[in-house]
Amino acid sequence: MTLTVTKLVRQYPGNPRPTLDGMSFDLPAGTLTALLGRSGAGKSTMLRCVMGLEPFERGAIDIDGVVVRGTLECSPAERKAALAAAREKLGLVFQSHELFPHLTALDNCTLAPMHVRKEARASAEKRARELLVQLGLEQRLDAFPEQLSGGQRQRVAIARALVMEPRVLLYDEPTSALDPSMKNEVVQVLKAVDARGVTQVVVTHDLQLAKAVEYVCVLDHGQVIESGAPGEVLANPAHESTRALLAAWHA
Length: 251
Ligand code: ADP
Prior knowledge:
38% of the residues lie in helices and 23% in strands. It is α/β, with parallel strands linked by helices. The relative contact order is 0.17.
């Protein structure tokens, strides 16, 4: 298993109830999974906890063998070491892409390997080129972000995350800023990444995307209320909240 979340509890200070309330799920290596659920279900908090951007009090997240435990269940030093090890295995593609405007597509992708990993330019560029070509950007390697379409910028952002060779890649609402015609393109890109064996987790409100993934987890009140293949869960929802979500999508 590449990503296993066990009984995660996160309660924001001042909130009367936990936002994550014993959340558990288990994703085999190389799956493409969507986290679904109505607004306020806990999806973004879950994503931030996996990324180490948000503390959680109890439970554990196992990322390819590195286990990060809740703040009440391990020492600060243990937690710090686990987070540092986990960071090596994780990538995040932000909704807004956040490319450096003064760098070309290629240079956006080589920056982290060269400066964080101290990798030589030649080997970083080789991998970055390969990824950009695989994602259909062979003609745009030297383009600056403002010269690229929204979909192309997003593909550069995905290549930039993949160049660090993460085991788990997380996406925050990858289709929300795109017009409907671009959405299918995003699905194709996620499937191309899937073929590389990277475990991908996508937080989305997009039914088209949810239908195209391999596995869905539906969240409500900080727990996974149902999970499985989208063909089963979305075609035959067992839970009232999932039915409400589908009704809202079809409205
Ligand atoms: P989702 O992504 O599913 O919409 P979130 O994880 O963003 O859900 O938020 C779930 C709930 O957690 C919110 O309704 C809110 O009550 C609470 N919450 C989220 N972020 C914070 C925060 N920074 N401080 C306090 N409460 C928060």
